[in-house]
TrEMBL record:
InterPro entries noted in UniProt: Class_I_gatase-like, Peptidase_C26, PuuD-like
A GO CC term attached to the entry: cytosol
Domain of life of the organism encoding this protein: Bacteria
Protein name: Anthranilate synthase component II
GO MF annotation terms: gamma-glutamyl-gamma-aminobutyrate hydrolase activity
Length: 239
C-alpha cells in the first residue's frame, strides 16, 4: 500500500548574521515522527504564488501545521500587546493561503502549538498574546529543559480523538507563552490543563482536524511510543 504523503509547514528565517541568508527551517522531529508513523514527510517552503502553493498541496494526503513564531494579532483584529514575541509576515501569509486551499479538500490536518493556534484564528478565534494577561495561578507552560519531559497533565474529553487514544488524561511537555482565548467556530475543546488552559481542539465535522498545544513530535522522536499514537492516527486517517 502506498504510504501517505504528509506536508509539514516550515519557518521563513532571515539570518542577518550570515550575510542576510534566508532559510526554510523546521524541527526534524516532525519528519521523524511522521516517518515512524508510516507516512512520507515533505517539508513545504514559504512561497507567495497561490498557483504554486496549490500545486504543492495537490501532492499531499495530509497537512501538519508545525510550531514556531507568534502569529500577527492583526489576524484576529487586535493590536500588539506587551509580551508578544517575534512574528513572520511571510509565514503568516503563506500558511493562511495554505489553509484556504487545503481545508476545502477535507483531507486530514494536524496542528501543533502555533499550528493549533493558527487553526483557531482561521476559524474566527483569538489568542491571549501572552499568558501574563490571564488572571489566576498558572502552571509552568514554557519549560526550558529536556524537550521530552512530561510537565503537566491534560484532561481529555472522552468522546474525542485524543480521548480514544489516551483515555481521560495524558501527560505532556509544554513550550508556549500564548494560549487560546476565544474559541473559533466549528471547533470544540477536547483537552485542558488544571489551570483551565486549552491544550487540544478538534473540528466538529467528520474530517480529521486536530490541534494540540504541546509538542508531541519532541516526545515521540525521543522514544515516547505513547505520543506516537497521535501521528499514527493522523497518518492512518490520511490513507
Amino acid at each position: 500500500m502506498k504510504k501517505p504523503i504528509i506536508g509539514i509547514t516550515s519557518a521563513y528565517e532571515k539570518e542577518r548574521e550570515l550575510k542576510n541568508y534566508h532559510r526554510t527551517t523546521v524541527c526534524i522531529d516532525y519528519a521523524k515522527s511522521i516517518a515512524e508513523a508510516g507516512g512520507i514527510p515533505l517539508v513545504i517552503p514559504t512561497l507567495e504564488n497561490r498557483e504554486d502553493i496549490r500545486a504543492q498541496l495537490e501532492m499531499l494526503d495530509g497537512l501538519l501545521l508545525s510550531g514556531g513564531e507568534d502569529i500577527n494579532p492583526q489576524y484576529y483584529n487586535e493590536d500588539f500587546m506587551e509580551g508578544m514575541g517575534l512574528v513572520s509576515p511571510e509565514r503568516d501569509k503563506n500558511e493562511w493561503t495554505i489553509l484556504e486551499e487545503f481545508l476545502p479538500t477535507g483531507k486530514p490536518i494536524l496542528g501543533v502549538c502555533r499550528g493549533m493556534q493558527l487553526l483557531n484564528i482561521f476559524y474566527g478565534g483569538s489568542l491571549y498574546q501572552d499568558m501574563k494577561h490571564i488572571s489566576g495561578d498558572l502552571l509552568k507552560h514554557r519549560q526550558d529543559f529536556l524537550p521530552e519531559l512530561k510537565v503537566h497533565r491534560v484532561k481529555l474529553e472522552e468522546d474525542s480523538i485524543l480521548g480514544r487514544l489516551f483515555g481521560e488524561v495524558v501527560l505532556t511537555n509544554s513550550f508556549h507563552h500564548q494560549a487560546i482565548d476565544r474559541l473559533g467556530e466549528d471547533l470544540k475543546v477536547i483537552g485542558r490543563t488544571s489551570d483551565d488552559i486549552i491544550e487540544a481542539i478538534e473540528g466538529k465535522r467528520k474530517e480529521f482536524l486536530l490541534g494540540v498545544q504541546w509538542h508531541p513530535e519532541m516526545m515521540s522522536a525521543r522514544g515516547n511510543k505513547e505520543m506516537l499514537r497521535i501521528f499514527k492516527e493522523f497518518v492512518e486517517s490520511s490513507k
